[in-house]
Design the sequence.
């Protein structure tokens, strides 16, 4: 059984059908990168996996459990599925440590005495152990995004979703975030990423999924997909992304 | 007729206790109600949002004087209930405070980005935990300057309670002025006392505004 099973998912916003029957499986430990033009439905699909959006028809299962906004243990589910956003969304009124420990403490995942150690641990993993007492606004965009990743890691998720996490960063800050993600990939974290970083998609992903007009247009290992795109849409996308 | 003396000075300051008491009562009952109204205004239930908006609209549209008259003179006429003056003013100032603070705080809550709620939800926090630990602290900081501004309004607004017989600062001024025939001196003093009460609040509000950029 795949960790994530997506079956014929449809999603409409107003009159626009954003997802037109998407099916996709993601195995445990797999790194799947979703690429495609703006409006192809990549981000919406990602948000559906975390029940931030509800699907209109079809179904999504994570670890065998059917996902939807009204699911009975939505809070528990979200503790197992982390998501990192383009805009970081750190809590600006809390220091880095509290940003990280707030949810683990409130959800009863850890005791108060161990909170600081947990923050230190996850910050070390993103290379920011020295920023534990900083305010978010004192950090660069790349550092804020790494704290956001650490905040997710503190919940020990089984699956992590990344929604264009480098798109809001200055070019020179992109690398440090990608490096953190690459290290996570090597440690066996299951990851689904929506990204425009073709280099990262090529080098780190196990599989590339090209979405076009609300459908999975083409998918496969990066080497094959980039070298021999089967559809003209993917070929032109790759050409334009270079 | 007698000349203005220390006793008049003291009686003005003594009357301050009613001014302060009225403000304290208005905040003690009005602030929790305001929080309820503000939360109702951002509720996901449309009917609740509408009901709260209607309450606020009605109360804000009635002059404070009208509220005072209604609860003291109107209640016996319309509902046959004679309430003590203290109850009438407490209810009037409570509603007045709730309606204005409620709107101020609603604005603060809405000024916090929607993505902050989402970030909390994605970490597995309940709606209440998101509100309590993520949204409310940020909204409070955004709302502090206008909240203090309203407080100044409220302090001055307590002068209207004099029409129901409360010898607060403004009413004490009338009494002293009538006894001493020194209206200019008396009311100048009254004005100075209001000023001394409000100025620190205004300054505090301004320093908060400068210190809190709203994000932290």
Sequence:
């Amino acid at each position: 059984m795949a960790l994530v099973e997506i079956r014929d998912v449809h999603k409409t916003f107003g009159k626009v059908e954003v997802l037109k029957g998407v099916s996709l499986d993601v195995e445990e430990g797999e790194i799947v990168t979703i690429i495609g033009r703006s409006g192809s439905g990549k981000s919406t699909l990602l948000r559906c996996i975390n029940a931030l959006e509800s699907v209109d028809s079809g179904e999504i299962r994570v670890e065998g459990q059917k996902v939807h906004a009204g699911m009975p243990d939505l809070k528990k589910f979200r503790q197992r599925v982390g998501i990192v956003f383009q805009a970081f969304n750190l809590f600006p009124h809390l220091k880095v440590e509290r940003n990280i420990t707030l949810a683990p403490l409130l959800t009863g995942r850890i005791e108060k005495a161990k909170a600081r150690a947990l923050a230190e641990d996850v910050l070390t993993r993103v290379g920011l152990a020295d920023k534990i007492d900083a305010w978010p606004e004192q950090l660069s965009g790349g550092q804020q995004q790494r704290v956001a990743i650490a905040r997710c890691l503190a919940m020990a998720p089984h699956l992590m979703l990344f929604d264009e996490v480098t798109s809001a960063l200055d070019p020179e800050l992109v690398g440090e975030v990608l490096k953190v993600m690459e290290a996570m990939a090597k440690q066996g974290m299951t990851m689904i990423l929506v990204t425009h970083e073709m280099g990262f998609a090529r080098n780190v992903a196990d599989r590339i999924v090209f979405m076009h007009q609300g459908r999975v247009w083409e998918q496969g290992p990066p080497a094959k997909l980039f070298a021999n795109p089967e559809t003209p849409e993917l070929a032109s996308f790759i050409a334009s992304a270079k | 007729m007698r000349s203005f003396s220390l006793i008049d000075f003291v009686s003005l300051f003594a009357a301050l206790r009613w001014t302060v008491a009225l403000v304290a009562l208005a905040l003690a009952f009005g602030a929790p109600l305001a929080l309820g109204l503000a939360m109702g205004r951002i509720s996901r239930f449309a009917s609740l949002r509408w009901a709260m908006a209607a309450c606020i609209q009605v109360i804000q549209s009635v002059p404070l004087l009208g509220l005072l008259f209604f609860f003291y003179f109107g209640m016996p006429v319309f509902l046959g209930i004679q309430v003590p003056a203290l109850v009438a003013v407490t209810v009037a100032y409570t509603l007045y405070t709730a309606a204005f603070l409620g709107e101020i705080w609603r604005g603060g809550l809405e000024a916090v980005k929607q993505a902050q709620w989402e970030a909390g939800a994605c970490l597995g926090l309940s709606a209440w935990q998101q509100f309590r630990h993520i949204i409310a602290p940020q909204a409070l900081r955004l709302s502090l300057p206008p909240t203090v501004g309203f407080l100044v309004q409220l302090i001055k607004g307590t002068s209207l309670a004099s029409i129901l017989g409360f010898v607060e600062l403004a009413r004490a001024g009338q009494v002293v002025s009538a006894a001493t025939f020194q209206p200019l001196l008396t009311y100048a003093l009254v004005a100075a006392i209001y000023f001394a009460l409000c100025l620190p609040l205004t300054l505090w509000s301004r320093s908060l505004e400068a210190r809190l950029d709203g994000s932290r």
Summary: The domain at 4-241 of chain A is CATH 3.40.50.300 (Rossmann fold). The first helix of chain A runs from residue 42 to 49. Strands of chain A lie at 4-13, 16-26, 31-35, 57-62, 65-66, 81-84, 159-163, 190-194, 207-212, 215-220.
